[in-house]
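Write out this protein's structure.
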Amino acid sequence: MLRRFFAIFLVVPLLIAVPALAQEDASVIKSHGISRFGDLKYPADFTHFDYVNPDAPKGGELRMSAPGTFDSLNPFIVKGTPAAAGGLIYDTLLASSLDEPTSMYGLVAESIEYPEDKSWVIFDLRPEARFHDGEPITAEDVVFSFHTLVEKGAPLYRFYYANITKAEALGPHQVKFTFNQKDNAELPAIIGQLPVLPKHYWEGRDFAATTLTPPPGSGPYKIGAVQPGRSITYERVADYWGKDLAVNKGRNNFDRVTYEYYRDGGVTFEAFKAGRFDLRPENISRNWATAYDFKAVQDGAVVKVILKDETPEPAQAYVFNLRRAKFQDPRVRQAIGLAFDFDWLNENLFYNFYKRTASYWPGSELAATGLPSEAELKLLEPYRDQVPPEVFTREFTQPTTRPPGSLRDNLREAARLLDEAGWQVQNGVRTNVKTGEKLTIEFVSNQADLERVINPYIRNLERIGIRMHFRVVDASQMQDILNNYDFDMTSNIFQQSISPGNEQREFWGSMSADQPGGRNVIGIKNPVVDALIEKIIFAPSRADVVAATRALDRVLLWNHYAVLNYYSGGTPVAMWNKFSRPATEPRYGADLYSWWVDPAKVAKLRAAGYAAK
């Protein structure tokens, strides 16, 4: 499932399906929400989520930074670079609960109906729902949104909604979606995440083209001031139609949300120190350890926190482009991974802040550990001759250079694998003995500060005859490179949820490998991976989801599709001390929009001589 995540409206997966609730007849369920494995936590008459403060004051501004630039206000298409947080202006049919792993409740939709086999779903829309220009939200808008995103939106929508065969308006405020599969328990909520677009606005306009004209949405914020490529401000809609709904109570507390763009990481940090923006997720361990010693930190005007929850950590990795012939042999990929010396980096560059990533769902119960369980073996056994034998016989562990291990030992093993794969050293460079191709790699990134991490890696690869070149491009170039898969290796982050589902087809599925602008960046085409993804999607219980995900994790890991990097065990955040947060934190993701600007803290900052908006 796609879910709104923390600060910059990222999309990440979440698995949803149906609960056992009151039925209108023997086969149709009607409810105010949906949850896959068990009853909903919140009853139909709930007033707010437990992790919000329903009396949080409204007002003030949240100021954020964003890297690079932007040239579009349409976040749903491949073309252009969209402005950060574009989803703030749109409402969806359902809204996620962050203290339940698999639950959603009505937003634009007042209620939902579906049969026990989940072959279709009906959404009953709220008659009071409105777009920002005052026009009502109708079933025709929902149908239009579905077709527009599938036909003209980014490829992820075609894959995400691939099992939806029909969308029809049954009345002005009732819409039905029909599926081509039964018992795919996630499908009713997948379409519940549909952002609702205004048909009356987009008809006659080219949805697939970039635009800097603010479109009307229906969400809690609308687009205010726009300085193309430099900044964008979202303004809270004072008469927002859904402000008193239970799913919104205590949320969307800032009057304004502004993103200011910076092209240089050093300049961004100096801007934060100067109070140009409020909150900085810190992804550089050196900064976290040493850079926050300025006066505002000493005075308590800037505070450091690590936000933790039960969702998987982001799995950052250096990914191979399997569309390149030189990366087809897993022994080559494994050899390249052996040259990555995490332990040296962690000690010499990272202040021992990080843990080595050894799963695509790190830090969660979904990560494969030890040897396969009985439930995993049941899933994996039919594919024993199609997966690396280590899947069954060895726990996946990352190479280490901590004694008794050493970089020398790892490079010796890498050289053996390369020799075995037919890449011999000729004139100091690994050369394919059959084709004569040199094993050279261009590593492309839009993060210039990654060079300090890549350079030691380059030196290690040179020792085994591999030549790597690090190329830095701007954000727009990077987006184009990713859309067209025009790279050898690059850095990527796999942000998973606690409940994976249909979106796994986009990450790893064969059908998505050649779709421009898709999320299968690596280009994996593996029938076993495809089969295990289907096991996740059709898992009948939470235990089955966990087993199938761990089995998939093992197959991904032992195929060495990427050089997994490291994670921090939480989200390090530095912020100006002007915010207050609810007493209860959500279990499954930080909800920044349940925070509020605290007038007493703002007054304290001003009294100490700090400007605080």
